[in-house]
Amino acid sequence: MEGFIAWWAAHIPLSPQLSVFFISMIPLIEERGGLILARMLGLPMWEAVFWCVIGNIVPIPFILWGIKSVLHWMSEHHLSKVAEWLMAKAEKNKPKIDRYGFFGLLLFVGIPLPGTGAWTGSLVASVFDMDLKKASISILLGIFLAAVIMTFLSYGVFGSVIS
Q1: Cβ pair 40, 30 in contact under 8 A
Q2: Domain check: are 76 and 14 in the same one?
Q3: Domain residues for 86?
Q4: Contact of 122 with 139, CB cutoff 8 Å
Q5: How far is residue 128's CA from residue 8's CA, in Å, rounded to a whole number?
Q6: 72 plus 133 within the same structural domain
């Protein structure tokens, strides 16, 4: 992930704010990568958090309300292997979320580990027909939790080591 972020910083001619916003929208990278990029680009902490959180939130409604249709379309248009991979990813993570319900989804999205985050949490919530209102709130709170944790790591503990 760090290699891609460094490449982006060196080759994509966008303002730091837009770069952080767009990086935070990318699945698997999300706001974790956005905060790392923001630190690399010298954005102030609060501005970085703002753009990361907004970028991470933008795709969520589209995933929650549209992923089933996309998966169905993919299955019928020679992308069934990708659709199967996404379903397997959702299936693999469902028990982690089901065990604690609302708080399980919040923690799954909020604790910044590989393979977790708003994209995967939204995928699981949608595919397994979780209540979308509760799932949306849980995912939003998880995004805020991840922002707090990653801000501490990017601008706090590791930030002082990097500087």
Answers
A1: no
A2: no
A3: 60-145
A4: yes
A5: 34
A6: yes
- In the DSSP assignment, the letter for residue 130 is -
**How is residue 101 written in tokens?**
């319900």
Prediction pTM value = 0.84
Task: State how far the Cα of 135 lies from the Cα of 115, in Å rounded to an integer.
Answer: 18
Note the pLDDT tens digit of each residue in 129-156. Answer: 889 999 999 999 999 999 999 998 888 7
Where is pLDDT greater, at 133 or 128? 133
Q: Are residues 78 and 51 located together in one domain of the fold?
A: no
Say whether both 26 and 81 belong to one domain. Answer: no
Residues shown for the chain: 163
C-alpha to C-alpha distance for 8 and 60, rounded to whole angstroms: 23
69, 27: one domain: no
